[in-house]
Amino acid sequence: MALYELYAHPVERGYRAGLCSKAALFLLLAAALTYIPPLLVAFRSHGFWLKRSSYEEQPTVRFQHQVLLVALLGSEPGGFLAWSTFPAFNRLQEGHLRVPLVSAREEDRNQDGKMDMLHFKLELPLQSTEQVLGVQLILTFSYQLHRMSTFVMQSMAFLQSSFAVPGSQLHVNGDLRLQQKQPLGYRGLDVRYNVSVINGTSPFASDYDLTRIVAAYQERNVTTILTDPSPIWLVGRAAEAPFVVNAVIRYPVEVISYPFC
Ligand SMILES: *[C@@H]1O[C@H](CO)[C@@H](O)[C@H](O)[C@H]1NC(C)=O
Ligand SMILES: *[C@@H]1O[C@H](CO)[C@@H](O)[C@H](O)[C@H]1NC(C)=O
Ligand SMILES: *[C@@H]1O[C@H](CO)[C@@H](O)[C@H](O)[C@H]1NC(C)=O
């Protein structure tokens, strides 16, 4: 005779043990493993789907006290005066060499241990017949980021300004901004660009050519540039007065992009 299922009801079976038993420990562990690892993965990967993100950091910037100056003169065609902190460059200038008075001071405004700005002043002595129509100036910096990856680079602020009338002073007030063509790593040490912007040991004139220096610099994926929307050119120089470059360069907080792997 065939049998049919006429009625069914579930049976609950309970297991009893003390809270300090192995079974209780196992249950606790299983519960923890269910919830905590996914949270950690989500947290450590900073989001599952993002490919690139960014963070803010104030860089650690120090002026390296390296200067290269070219002042374009108006009195004779092609006339210029030049000076740098590199002896080899100065030797190459011969009659065009003119040594200025330079002072530089970095300031940590909020006392957080990181410099916030550079006050740079350069006074170039001139003869009364000499007239400055333009200035090209390179200042170099050591630039470091520490928050995600440790990024160390030597970078520059390139300043170029020229006007139609002879000047007495040039005032610059700008930011040293980070330029990224490529996201930075989120950990590790990156010293790719910890190379000097100007090869100060080279005896060759070509190594001090501004076109070449700027071209080599622009090859980099990470650089700094000086952004000053409006340098101020003052005219009316007294006969014996020097030409003065006055620059305030700020080191602002940057938004740095980095990839997710
Ligand atoms: C610069 O960035 C490009 C594109 O992201 C990359 O292919 C290249 O390897 C980078 N160069 C260096 C020196 O890191
Ligand atoms: C960067 O370069 C400078 C000068 O060459 C050197 O003193 C410094 O140790 C370098 N920093 C790193 C982290 O490699
Ligand atoms: C600097 O120039 C000298 C002489 O030309 C050369 O030996 C040296 O490798 C150069 N250094 C760099 C970092 O390019």
From TrEMBL:
Species classification: Eukaryota, Metazoa, Chordata, Craniata, Vertebrata
Protein purpose: Transmembrane component of the tectonic-like complex, a complex localized at the transition zone of primary cilia and acting as a barrier that prevents diffusion of transmembrane proteins between the cilia and plasma membranes. Required for ciliogenesis and sonic hedgehog/SHH signaling.
GO BP terms: cilium assembly; regulation of protein localization
Species this protein is from: Ovis ammon polii
Subunit structure: Part of the tectonic-like complex (also named B9 complex). Interacts with TMEM107.
Keyword Membrane: yes
Protein name, UniProt field: Transmembrane protein 231
Pfam family, one: TM231
Localization per record: Cell projection, Cilium membrane
GO cellular component, one term: ciliary membrane
Keyword Transport: no
Residue intervals passing through the bilayer: 23-43
Similarity comment: Belongs to the TMEM231 family.
Membrane topology, record value: Multi-pass membrane protein
Source organism, top-level taxon: Eukaryota
Cross-referenced PANTHER family: CHST5 PROTEIN, TRANSMEMBRANE PROTEIN 231
Key words, A-Z: Cell membrane, Cell projection, Cilium, Cilium biogenesis/degradation, Glycoprotein, Membrane, Transmembrane, Transmembrane helix
